[in-house]
Design a protein that fits this description.
CATH class: Alpha Beta
CATH superfamily: Glutaredoxin
Number of strands: 6
Strand order of the largest sheet: 1-2
CATH topology: Glutaredoxin
Structural class: alpha+beta
Number of domains: 1
Order of helices and strands: HHEHEHEEEEH
Helix content: 25-40%
Radius of gyration: 14 Å
Length: about 110
């Protein structure tokens, strides 16, 4: 998550026309504390039952947690790009993500 925070201004256009939502099975209190303590500029959503993760194939039933899947959703609400799993330690994953965001972003 730190990489998202550190690249937020460039990769996610500082939130202009791009919304980043991190979804986790962690509780609201845990996520709020973590986001506040780490200075994350984006929203965290709590999905303690793993409903969202199951719906999108991002839930690991063995460990009862969501995996590191990443979805880019275009302005019409259609998933336009999936990285599953997201390779958070691979710099090329962020290049791919940046391109996917650019392609999905609203055209001016």
């Amino acid at each position: 998550m730190n990489a998202y925070r550190d690249q937020y201004a460039t990769l996610f256009k500082n939130g202009q026309g791009v919304t980043l939502l991190a979804i986790s099975v962690d509780s609201v209190a845990e996520l709020a504390s973590w986001a506040r303590d780490s200075g994350y500029p984006f929203r965290f959503l709590s999905d303690p039952g793993g409903v969202v993760g199951r719906t999108y194939g991002a839930y690991n039933a063995q460990y009862k947690l969501d995996d590191r899947s990443l979805f880019v959703v275009d302005p019409q609400g259609k998933i336009s790009h999936i990285q599953q799993p997201f390779r958070e330690i691979d710099a090329t994953a962020y290049t791919e993500l940046g391109k996917a965001i650019e392609e999905a972003a609203p055209k001016e």
